[in-house]
Amino acid sequence: MALRIAEKASLTDVGRQRQSNEDSYLEREPLFAVADGMGGARAGEVASRMAVEAFDSAAKDASPEQMLRSVAREANRRIYEMAQGDTEHAGMGTTLTAAMVSGREVAVGHVGDSRLYRLRDGKIERLTEDHSLVEELMRQGRLTPEEAESHPQRSIITRALGPEPDVDVETFTDSARDGDVYLICSDGLSGMISEEDMTAILERSGSLANAAKQLVDAANEAGGKDNITVVLFRLESDGEPESEPVPDTLSGKEAEEGLSADSVRDAVADAKAEAGTVAIGAGEAARARERAAAEPRPAAKAPPARQSPVRVLPPDEARRRPAGRPHSRRRIGAAIAVLAVAAAIFGLYEGSRQFYFLGTDARGVVALYRGLPYDLPLGVHLYRRVYSSDVPAAAITDHRQRKNLLDHQLRSRGDAVTRLRELERSETPR
User: Fold this and answer.
1) Which of 420, 415, 428 has the alpha carbon at shortest distance from 360?
2) Cα dist. 99→105, 112, 387 in Å?
3) pLDDT digit string (tens) for 226-254?
4) pLDDT digit string, tens, across residues 48-89
5) Helix/strand/coil (H, E, C) string of the chain?
6) Residue 37 above 60 pLDDT?
7) Whether 78 contacts 17, CB under 8 Å
8) What CA–CA distances, in Å, run from 27 to 9, 22, 31, 32, 52?
9) 137 with 154: CB under 8 angstroms?
């Protein structure tokens, strides 16, 4: 079943220490976004507004990830050109974190340090990584999370829309479930309250509108040092068949093609067509038998002398075994077998999308895969590569660590990504 947006809410506030609000947001089903502008003299407000307005001209025929990536790049181009041509807006830029609901998945486009969280079964998980100086230092193992919270340069971001003519847009797709709540926010919220406080508010609020207000109030009570913007939406099953799933990537890098939804659907369609043909053939055979039973049967003739011997069935046995029947049964059996195989493949494909595992790619570096670590006949893979690190497997000198990491153990996305990031930090030269 596909998922629909059951509830949504959004709220923005200037905070307690700023004179103007440079945040902008978008709440337009199935699209949601938050942009946090920078640049001073209201230039940041212009940049963030341009980022969300870029969705007005989004390509309608692109996949969700492709659309989010193209919108972010187009917004970057517009902001950069304005900043270069107008001294009043020189140096302006903005973050952008956007989400698009499609079927049972949420596609994400991300630049900067605005964040996307997901609340599931009472637990909150941050799905985006900040493009910031302290986050990079944490990935390298040079800062602990506790040190990062109070680091004097924690507000410095390493990626934004506008400062450069080109921007690297991080995109990925998250598998959603019935009841999931997604929160997109500027750092005016995430920098003021903890994830534990966010979870408690979302759990007790009763509605997303109340949750949005309570989140903003909590950030202000903690100091309100920046503009605060929150966008919330909750998903539930709509009872309709699932729409076509979109490709999954972790960071916008090329994914290695495995078993695709198109190939599975084609197999199922071919099997159904075969079954339909068999059903028609069986129906025609039945009607032919009825006509044959109503007509007088001529006496059997002896076969010509030069023909191979042919056994002529007695009339009673001929009625019990009408012509064409064994062939029809064989075709029906073959069609059922094809359908069973296609259904099994489709079931494996759908189930595999919930799992991730770590392995190595063709270059010998540690990579993240989505799916099951199995190959089927005819070159069908139940997995696809979604991210390749820069860490060669051979560089992992600890034999036990290498075995534990590369054992193809099935993991959740969060666990797999965390382990990969820890490996990248531990193997990055200091």
Assistant:
1) 420
2) 10, 14, 20
3) 999 999 999 999 876 544 444 444 444 33
4) 999 999 999 888 889 999 999 999 999 999 999 999 988 888
5) CCEEEEEEEEEEECCCCCCCCCEEEEEECCEEEEEEEECCCCHHHHHHHHHHHHHHHCCCCCCHHHHHHHHHHHHHHHHHHHHHHCHHHCCCEECEEEEEEECCEEEEEEECCCEEEEEECCEEEECCCCCEHHHHHHHCCCCCHHHHHCCCCCCCECCCECCCCCCCCEEEEEECCCCCEEEEECHHHHCCCCHHHHHHHHHHCCCHHHHHHHHHHHHHHCCCCCCEEEEEEEEEECCCCCCCCCCCCCCCCCCECCCCHHHHHHHHHHHHHHHHHHHHHHHHHHHHHHHHHHCCCCCCCCCCCCCCCCCCCCHHHHHHCCCCHHHHHHHHHHHHHHHHHHHHHHHHHHHHCCCEEEEECCCCEEEEEEEEEEEEHHHEEEEEEEEEEEEEHHHCCCHHHHHHHCCCCCECHHHHHHHHHHHHHHHCCC
6) yes
7) no
8) 8, 17, 6, 5, 10
9) no
Answer positive or negative: Cα dihedral of 381, 383, 386, 388: negative
% of the chain with per-residue pLDDT over 90: 45
CB 389 within 8 A of CB 365: yes
User: Are the C-beta atoms of residues 419 and 409 closer than 8 Å to each other?
Assistant: no
Contact residues for 341 (Cβ-Cβ < 8 A; gap 6+) = 267, 271
Tokens of 133: 């100086």
Residue pair 110/117 in contact (Cβ under 8 Å)? The answer is: no
